[in-house]
Amino acid sequence: MRYGLIGEKLGHSYSKIIHEKLADYRYDLIPLNQEEFDKFMTAREFTAINVTIPYKQRVIPYLDELHSTARAVGAVNTIVNRGGKLTGYNTDFYGFEYMIQKNAIPINGRTCFILGNGGAAKAVLAVLKHLQAGEILIVSRTPSKGTISYEECRLRHSDAKIIVNTTPVGMYPNTNGSPLDLTPFKNCEAVLDLIYNPLHTKLTLQAKELGIQSVNGLLMLVAQAKQAAEYFLAQEFDDAVIEPIYQELLSGFL
Ligand code: NAP
After folding, report:
1. CATH homologous superfamily for 94-216?
2. Catalytic site residue from 9, 16, 39, 56
């Protein structure tokens, strides 16, 4: 196997479609349980791969080196095998920053919530810091040092301006769920949902109803794949490749 994606459940993935539009390699979807994951990473029989839930952090001990962004984020979603030596990258950082910039979301000085505390939350946190957000609060179901509860965010931080959903709540097929009721957040300026299936989640639909700018995760998905393909092929692509693929996927949803 040369190029592809590893993760636990990949039935929902659009990565094959996106990568095969970006470049002319074949891209395989490889679902792995924990035992298979260990064997796969130990064998190193691939040229370059992407990594998704739940292996973005678990993959780090198998690598020989980490690119600076992956080190700063603490999670890896792209690995390149050069002569048996594995280097880990994080392209979610680029994808999330691209999503923010394309949608002109103001971050500087704003209080931001990150809902969920998994792999994607780490990339989101690094980007929000990089864009000089004000206070950044990570909201978790099991709050510990550095995170707050959903109750605390409602009761004590209703002035939040930017809300980013990095939980899977609202994702297909459980589209009826929402991680947070937006009603108390009267000063909220934008809701960014990393979910792209469905395109409009219960959370982003509520944002729209309340007149809050909302963005889904589809553009981030295409942008992070573009940077991953650059690492795979050691070749730069123009950002202009992102938009037509994004539009084509978007039309498939409509
Ligand atoms: P993950 O590592 O499993 O983390 C998700 C976090 O969400 C968990 O750590 C958990 O935090 C919280 N969570 C999980 N189930 C929940 C529930 N039922 N209710 C409330 N909170 C829950 O996954 P991930 O890699 O960060 O990905 C998260 C989401 O982002 C997925 O939907 C994924 O598809 C999406 N994503 C999109 C892109 C893109 O390009 N658009 C890129 C990466 C990820 P607590 O236990 O602390 O509450």
Report:
1. NAD(P)-binding Rossmann-like Domain (3.40.50.720)
2. 56
- Residue 131 CA to residue 100 CA, distance in Å, equals 10
**What lines the ligand 1 site, CB under 6 Å?**
53-54, 56, 92, 95, 116-121, 140-142, 166-169, 171, 179, 194-196, 217, 220-221, 224
3: which strand partners?
27, 48
| pLDDT of res. 11 | 86
pLDDT digits (tens, 9 = 90+) for 57-75: 999 999 999 999 999 999 9
103 by DSSP, 3-state: which?
coil
Indicate if 56 belongs to the active site: yes
Where do the structural domains in the chain lie, given as residue ranges? 3-90+219-252, 94-216
CA of 117 to the centre of ligand 1 (A): 7
CATH class of 3-90+219-252: alpha beta
